[in-house]
Amino acid sequence: MSDPLFSVKDHVVLVSGGSRGIGRAIAAGFAQRGARVVITGRQQDTLNQTAREISQGESTVQALVCDVLDGNRIEEVVEEIVGQYGQIDTLVNVAGINQRKPAIDYTEDEYDRIMGVNLKGAFVVSQRVGRHMLQRGSGSQINISSLNSHRTVSHLLPYALSKIGMDQMTRALAMEWGQAGVRVNAIGPGFVETDLTRKVWQDKTMEDWREANTPQRRIGKPEDMVGTALFLASPASAYLTGQVIYVDGGMTAGRMWPFSA
User: Fold this and answer.
1) Rounded to the nearest 5°, which phi and psi values hold at 142?
2) Strand partners, 56
């Protein structure tokens, strides 16, 4: 961008869970603006395809396999990126999983896996990247939270708990790291249509319910998260930390009155 206040050119950006959906859109948004982007995920083929598709000219996106449940691999990936580029300017914590069912039906293994990927995995990535940011005295971490951390939806209990925990992690790390020049914020997407959610939102009942409760009267797209992520990574948000910003078409603003006037 011509205005350096909002520029992320030459920033080194790690997007955990960057092969699809919101992570892919954010990674592409950074690459389009001249950042040096590394995406991680569990499937090398999917990562490679995404990296090829979103690379922009000299901004070649790098793909590294990393399961956020594997702390040793996270350490290796972080060290590889720092060894190659000398720094990590921005971390975007996107990797996450979900499973819909009544609370009474979750097994312990299902609960542990959702909490492990969404919360423990995000923390370990934040911690490992944070060590380098603290040594350098600068950096921005952006956690992808959820509307469920503000107003939970039924049949998503472990997921909602993990995202509530992520919001508190965001605030706690912001408190600890602020004086060292490291900022930590979160984006709470509203209802977003991705490959994984498209079938749900094509259901007429769900579509009508969502539209009735979203002031902007449309479903979100992964690309709707890009502007906020760029802002949180740029100098424009230099005095912003410990915040959860809901990008939700206005859903958290209140309840819609069922009358037109």
Assistant:
1) -125, 115
2) 59
Q: How far apart are CA 153 and CA 9, in angstroms?
A: 38
Measure CA 17 to chain center.
8
Whether residue 135 is predicted with pLDDT greater than 90 in this model: the reply is yes
What sign does the dihedral 50-52-54-55 (CA atoms) show?
positive
Report residue 159's pLDDT band, with 50, 70 and 90 as the boundaries: very high
Token pair for residue 223? 């690309």
Q: Reply yes or no on whether 159 is catalytic.
A: yes
Beta strand pairing call for 62-65 and 36-41: parallel
Report the SS3 class of residue 208.
helix
Catalytic residue among 106, 159, 239, 246: 159
Contact criterion met (CB below 8 Å) for 191 and 215: no
Average pLDDT over residues 159-178: 97
